Every structure is written in structure tokens, then in C-alpha cells.
């Protein structure tokens, strides 16, 4: 039996990484002139441990989807709605998220018809294999385990200072290759693992297996709901749009999103109301109807159920938090 020292093993790993990076750079030099990076296949890693990409909006990559990789997702421009597992919320420029393997997610910008955002997203994708293999050699990587466990529910990072540092590191990842890129990547994960100002998003670690037909239908349903939730929107209308029977659509939709149709729509409307409450001084009644509710008592009841407070109380807290953030 041949025993290999830790030092020799580490040197071997470094050698493999360098070779893989060189092969990748050669391949990319041949293809970047004819291929849009936005269309890079998620499972085509070219032998590399991490993938960096960026894209605009609209873009074919913007859809309800999931994949085996973790995804660190930074919003560069525009505001809109974020969907992670069974969570629905708001995003703005400098919003930073981390999603785990097979956790469905999507970001839909609220922009004018015909408007194009050239660069909306910066993403870093990586797999379990990278860290599981690394844990066997570098004990320090085990400190990242709690972060990765939380990512299975989806994480939004809140600390502005952390996000600013993360943005710089993501740009360094974009601009570098090989071991230098890996170095920036691990510094980035260490930064995020140390942050205690974050929000877990999905109520459950919703995990899906690949079913392209189901994912496509769910994506179309979410897009349709997003476009029409500001008015009365019965389940039957969406089912007809998809060419499905209402009972079947109801079952498929709940399996895909973790929420029944009515609850999903109500959460989307409450999310919109939170946005309106935080951004302005509209009367609560106006917020109610603009969010898609047609009854103020139903709006107040749903808001209390989901947020644990009244709309007026939420507005006061949102203003207070914004004031505190502006101090840093």
C-alpha cells in the first residue's frame, strides 16, 4: 500500500486544477466569439469547479427552474419579485441570494414593456462535489457546512457591508482564472458564512427531480400569474391558459411550488403590498386594491396571517430599518 502525504496530495490537486483551467481557457478562446455566455449549459462545467456567468433581462435563463448546483445570485440592476421554493419576496439592485441544489428559483424584473436591462445578474454556481472533496483534504472547509445547509432553504443576505464586499469578490472571480479564482471564491464563501444578518426564504427545502415538461408548465403559470395578479385571477383561468383541467393543474402547481394556487397568489399580492408600504405613503386602502385584493378586511386578515402585524405597523418598521441601513 502506498501512502501519500497531505502535502503531496495538495500539490497533486493544485496540478489538476491548473491543467483543467488551461484546457478551459483554450476552449473558451475558441468559442467566446461565437457563443453567448448566457446560453452556457449548466451541466457543462468543462472540468472546472465553479462557473461564473452574467446576463440581462429579458433572457432565456430567467425562468422558474432548478439545478444540482448551488447558486450565488447578485442583482446588479432593476427591481422585481423573487421566487425561491415556496417564498415570494422583493429584490432591488444589490440584493444577494444563495440557493441550494434542486431548490426552484426565479427573479422577474418589473420593467416597462420593451425595456431591456443589459446586465441584471451576476452568478456563481458550484457543486457539492467541490466542497465534499475539499473537506477530505482541507479541514478548514468544514466551517462552511452551516452556510450550505441553510442554502437548501434559500438565503437572502441583508448586511450592506457584506454585500459590497461580496460584489467586489464576485467581480474578482469574473476577472480571474485557475487557483486565483478559487482563492477569491473561498474568501467569498468565508465572508458569507460569517454573516449573521440574513433571512432564510423557503419554509421547506423544496427539492425537485428533473422533469422538463412540469418545469415548463410551472414557469408559464408563474409568468401568467405575475402578469395578472393585480386583478381577480381564478385558478380556472390559468388552467385554461395552460390547456389543463383545473383539478390537475391545481395538483401539479402545488407539487412544483409547495403552495396551493390561492395561497401562492395571496403571497404574491402581500409581497407587492409590502413593496408599496415600504416605498411610499399611500393610504393602506389604496395599497390593498393596487396589490390585487378587492376587500380591505380580507387584505388586513391575510397580511396579519403572513406578516404577524398590521400593514401600518409593517410600514413603520420598514421606514425604521431603511433609516438604520442608511447610517452605514
List keywords for this structure.
328 residues; sequence-specific DNA binding; 2 domains; alpha+beta; HTH_AraC-typ_CS; Arc Repressor Mutant, subunit A; DNA-binding; six-stranded antiparallel beta sheet; Jelly Rolls; Tscrpt_reg_AraC-type_HTH; DNA-binding transcription factor activity; globular; 12 helices; disordered N terminus; three-stranded antiparallel beta sheet
Describe the 3D structure.
- By secondary structure, this protein is α+β, with helices and mostly antiparallel strands.
- It folds into two domains: 6-200, Regulatory protein AraC (Jelly Rolls, Sandwich), CATH 2.60.120.280; 212-325, Orthogonal Bundle (Arc Repressor Mutant, subunit A), CATH 1.10.10.60.
- Helices cover 50% and strands 15% of the residues.
- The protein is built from twelve helices and nine strands.
- It has helices at residues 6-31, 128-135, 145-151, 160-175, 178-194, 212-228, 235-242, 246-257, 261-279, 284-290, 296-307, 311-325; strands at residues 50-57, 70-75, 80-84, 87-91, 96-99, 105-109, 117-126, 155-157, 198-200.
- The chain has a six-stranded antiparallel beta sheet with strand order 1-7-2-5-8-9. A three-stranded antiparallel beta sheet has the order 4-3-6, with helices on one face.
- A hairpin with a 2-residue loop joins strand 3 and strand 4.
- Helix 9 packs across helix 10 (284-290) and helix 9 (261-279) crosses helix 12.
- The longest helix is centred in the first third of the chain and has 26 residues, at 6-31.
- Residues 219-317 form the HTH araC/xylS-type domain.
- This is Transcriptional activator MltR.
- One of its GO terms (molecular function) is sequence-specific DNA binding.
- Keywords: DNA-binding, Transcription, Transcription regulation.
Amino acid at each position: 500500500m502506498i501512502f501519500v502525504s497531505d502535502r503531496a496530495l495538495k500539490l497533486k490537486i493544485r496540478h489538476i486544477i491548473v491543467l483543467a483551467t488551461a484546457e478551459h481557457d483554450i476552449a473558451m478562446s475558441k468559442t467566446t466569439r461565437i457563443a453567448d455566455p448566457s446560453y452556457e449549459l449548466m451541466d457543462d462545467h468543462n472540468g472546472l469547479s465553479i462557473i461564473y456567468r452574467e446576463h440581462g433581462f429579458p433572457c432565456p435563463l430567467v425562468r422558474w427552474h432548478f439545478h444540482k448546483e448551488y447558486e450565488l445570485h447578485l442583482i446588479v440592476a432593476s427591481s422585481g419579485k423573487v421566487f425561491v421554493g415556496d417564498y415570494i419576496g422583493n429584490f432591488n439592485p444589490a440584493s444577494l441570494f444563495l440557493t441550494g441544489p434542486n431548490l426552484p428559483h426565479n427573479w422577474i424584473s418589473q420593467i416597462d414593456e420593451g425595456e431591456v436591462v443589459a446586465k441584471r445578474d451576476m452568478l456563481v454556481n458550484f457543486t457539492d462535489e467541490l466542497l465534499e472533496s475539499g473537506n477530505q483534504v482541507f479541514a478548514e472547509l468544514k466551517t462552511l457546512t452551516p452556510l450550505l445547509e441553510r442554502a437548501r432553504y434559500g438565503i437572502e443576505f441583508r448586511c450592506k457591508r457584506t454585500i459590497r464586499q461580496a460584489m467586489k469578490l464576485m467581480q474578482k472571480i469574473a476577472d480571474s482564472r485557475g487557483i486565483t479564482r478559487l482563492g477569491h471564491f473561498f474568501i467569498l464563501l468565508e465572508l458569507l458564512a460569517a454573516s449573521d444578518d440574513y433571512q432564510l426564504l423557503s419554509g421547506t427545502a423544496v427539492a425537485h427531480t428533473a422533469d422538463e415538461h412540469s418545469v415548463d408548465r410551472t414557469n408559464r403559470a408563474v409568468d401568467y400569474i405575475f402578469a395578472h395578479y393585480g386583478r381577480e385571477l381564478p385558478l380556472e383561468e390559468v388552467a385554461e391558459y395552460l390547456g389543463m383541467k383545473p383539478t390537475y393543474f391545481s395538483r401539479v402547481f402545488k407539487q412544483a411550488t409547495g403552495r396551493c394556487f390561492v395561497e401562492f397568489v395571496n403571497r404574491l399580492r402581500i409581497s407587492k403590498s409590502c413593496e408599496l408600504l415600504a416605498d411610499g405613503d399611500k393610504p393602506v386602502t389604496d395599497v390593498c386594491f393596487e396589490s390585487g385584493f378587492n376587500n380591505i378586511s380580507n387584505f388586513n386578515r391575510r397580511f396579519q396571517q403572513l406578516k404577524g402585524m398590521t400593514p401600518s405597523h409593517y410600514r413603520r418598521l420598514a421606514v425604521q430599518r431603511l433609516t438604520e441601513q442608511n447610517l452605514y
